[in-house]
Every structure is written in C-alpha cells, then in structure tokens.
Amino acid sequence: MVDYLLLPSELLIDILNRLPLETLLRCTSVCKTWYSFITSPSFITTHLLNNNNNGSYLIVTPSNNHPRKINYYVYHDNESFDECVQLEFPIALSHSKFKIFGSINGLVLGLYGVLMFLWNPSTRKHLIVPNPDITFNSHGCHRDCIGFGFDPLNNDYKIVRVVYLIKKSGCVVPPEVEVYELRTHSWRRSVCAGEFSYCINEDVPQAFVNGAVHWIGYNSKRVGGIFRNSIVSFDMKTESFGAMIVPDSIAQQRTLSVAVVDESLSLIHMKLESCSVWMMEEYGIVNSWTKKLEIKLRSFYGPCQRPLRFTRNGHVLMAARSGDLVSYDPESKKIRGLGINGGINGDQQSFYFYIDTYVESLVLLEDLDRVLERKGTSLLPNKRMKYSTYS
Predict the structure, then answer these.
(1) Of 214 and 65, more confident
(2) Which has the minimum average pLDDT: 70-84, 95-109, 371-385?
(3) CB-hemisphere CA count at 13 Å for 10?
(4) What torsion, rounded to 10 degrees, do the Cα atoms 78, 84, 89, 94 define?
(5) Could you tell me which residues come within 8 angstroms of residue 25 by beta carbon, excluding any fewer than 6 positions away?
(6) Ramachandran area for residue 124 (φ above 0: left; ψ -120 to 50: alpha; else beta)
(7) SS3 readout for the chain
(8) What is residue 391's predicted lDDT score, i.e. its pLDDT?
(9) Fewest CB atoms less than 10 Å from the CB: which of 95, 103, 144, 292?
(10) C-alpha–C-alpha distance, residues 281 and 317, integer Å
C-alpha cells in the first residue's frame, strides 16, 4: 500500500489537481497534513490556474413559484445549454430583493437587502462581510458604488466602496473610499480619491479587467459645460483611480454600461430597439475602440433587455421581457429560447438574471477557517456565521 504522506510534494500536487473538486474536499478530512496542504494559498492558486475555464456558467435568478427563493444553476456552454447542477442559496431569505455584484475566480459577491456576503458555490462556503465604517448614522445621506476584484500582488480579494455624501448642492466630490480585504476580514478607509472628480452612479454594472474594476461615470466638473461619459477604474493592486475616454459617437449617451467580452473591456450602448457592443481591443489604448456588434432587441419573445453574457461560440445571452433567457446568433440574426425563465427581483418591474463564468475553486476555504479562528469558533459542517445589518 502506498503511503501518500511520503510522496514528493510535486507529485502530490499533480495527483490532487486531477481530482474532482468534491473528492478534493473530502481529502481534507484524511489528516491534518492534507488539510493544511489543500487549504494553503499556494495550492489553492495552483488548483485555480488548472481549473479556470471549464466551460460552464453560473445563472442566478429569483424563483417565479417561491418569492423568497433564489435559484442558482450551473449550465454547460454548449449547443444544448444543458443544466448540470442546481445550487442552494447560502442564506435564509425573508424577501427576494438581492443583487450580485460580480464573480472572481469562483468567488461571488452578493447583496441581500443590506447584507453583503461572499460565496463560493462550488465549495458551498460563504462569509458575511462586516458592516462598513461609513453609514447613514455616521455620515448622513449618501449613495455608494461597489466594486469587487482580485489583488494579485497580495493574493487577496477586495471590495471597494465609493461613497458620495449628499448635501443640498448635490453629491460631494471627491468621494469617501473604503476597502474591504478578505485576508483581514475588515474594512479600512482609503485616501486614494485625492483630486478624483468623477461621479459613479449607483447600481451600474462593473467589469473586472486587467486587475482593475471599471464602471461608467462622468466628470462632475463638466469641462465646457458638456456632459460626457467616461470609464472610471479602480486598480486593486495600487488602489488608485483612473479614467478612460469612450468613443465620441456614444460619449454623451446615458444608456451606457461596461462589460467583459472575450476577456476585453467593452461597452454596451442600449437604444430603444437595438444595442451596440464596442470592444477596447488593446487595453488602455483609446484608438482601439471598435464597434463589434449591433443587436436588434425585438423578437418572438418580445423586447429584450441588455446582453448578459457572450458565449464561447459567439452567441449572446439576453433576458427577454417575457422573462425568458434567450440566445442571439449574430450570424443568422436569430433568437432562440433556452427554456430558462427568470423571476422579478424585489419591487422591480423587470425580470432579473445574473450570468457569469462558473469556476470550480477552493477560494475561501483557508480564509473562512482563519476568520472563524479569530472569532474563537471552529469550522464545522453547515456552520453558519451570525450576521447583522447596518444603516
């Protein structure tokens, strides 16, 4: 019988990396040595690099039949778009109003009511993010914008919260900035805003590209008195803001949002019956903006909402106003239903879908253990951390 504890570390890494994730999780119970090895940051990173593209999508939508239930599905990126697993939402619901901000390396950042959480669907582990420092009680009226990304320098996941205090004259610029670090499980104030004069609206989509989170914003100073959109970025490594120019033809349109298409920073311009997709083919180079696609939004399923995801075969996933998730083929110009129906999110009047790449990863295992140790508790099966709300 082979004593696996005596195997060279390189061979052990190779063997463990080939195992299905569920088997790998069971291996953490073999002994303390294996647990420490599998939950170590170095192995988690190695495992992630080997499993970063499995051709599946995580789809999140409220349930039509149960208002307090959120459906999480994983679908294969193939012609039939068949379902491979349904996941359980990690938090008991009292209503259906929720939001997903983003997903990085298999780790999902979501907001349920005023409760922010990190969740790894593949390991079924979640962590409640503590209350931020800036609240209504401490600073009065404000609005905020949330960004989620990865800091490769410190091998850490971060949440940035850009807070605009509201006065009689409007929003105060520059904003207050808070950064949450997963490794410390705490918020800290940042002084990175400096002379930053851009405003970012609430509830705008984010795009994490090239180590930075991006949103649509505008310069509050309005040079020449003209409104013009820009792409506002926050670098997770340097914790500094930046801004990029968008194409002149759409710079003054108020229906712009950012997206990631083929791993490139992109723009989606929504119009009444169509939308266009622009791609920055070379990151940071303004002259590389290229209009890639024009999509007609009316179909058999009724008017469609904004594109949600671009598949590997070049099709576009969109939500129809009928509540159906549909796929658009740019070559044939045809739209087909995928047999997936969405639910209405809270008091919104539109159907809600969130779609992102599904990555099987061990992210959060080691961090969750460390946080629980700091709180004086142990990591037990189905252990739920207590949480509170903030205002």
Answers:
(1) 214
(2) 371-385
(3) 0
(4) 80
(5) 123
(6) left
(7) CCCHHHCCHHHHHHHHHCCCHHHHHHHCCCCHHHHHHHCCHHHHHHHHHHCCCCCEEEEEEECCCCCCCEEEEEEECCCCCCEEEEECCCCCCCCCCEEEEEEECCEEEEEECCEEEEEECCCCEEEECCCCCCCHHHHCCEEEEEEEEEECCCCEEEEEEEEEEEECCEECCCCEEEEEECCCCEEEEECCCCCCCEEECCCCCCEEECCEEEEEEEECCCHHHCCCEEEEEEECCCCEEEEEECCHHHCCCCCEEEEEECCEEEEEEECCCEEEEEEECCCCCHHHEEEEEEEECCCCCCCEEEEEEECCCCCEEEEECCCEEEEEECCCCEEEEEEEECEECCCCCCEECEEEECCCCCCCHHHHHHHHHHCCCCCCCCCCCCCCCCC
(8) 32
(9) 95
(10) 21
Task: Yes or no: say if 269 and 256 are a contact pair by the CB < 8 Å rule.
Answer: yes
Question: Tokens for 330?
Answer: 């740019």
Gap between the Cα atoms of 317 and 320, Å rounded: 10
Taking only the tens place, the pLDDT of each residue in 154-168 is: 989 999 999 998 887
> Nearest to residue 309, comparing CAs of 297, 320, 317, 321?
317
Say how far apart CA 372 and CA 367 lie, in whole Å.
Answer: 9
Kindly indicate the confidence band of residue 387, based on its pLDDT and cuts at 50, 70 and 90: very low
Q: Is pLDDT of 380 > 60?
A: no
Phi, psi of 249 (to 5 degrees): -65, -20
> Looking up tokens 């959109």, which residue turns up?
229
Q: Which whole number is the average pLDDT over 223-235? A: 84
Residue with tokens 């940042």: 190
CA end-to-end span of the chain: 59
Lowest-pLDDT choice from 64-78, 145-159, 184-198: 64-78
Torsion sign over Cα 95, 101, 103, 107: negative
Mean pLDDT, rounded, of the chain? 81
What span, in angstroms and rounded, lies between the C-alpha atoms of 34 and 54? 25
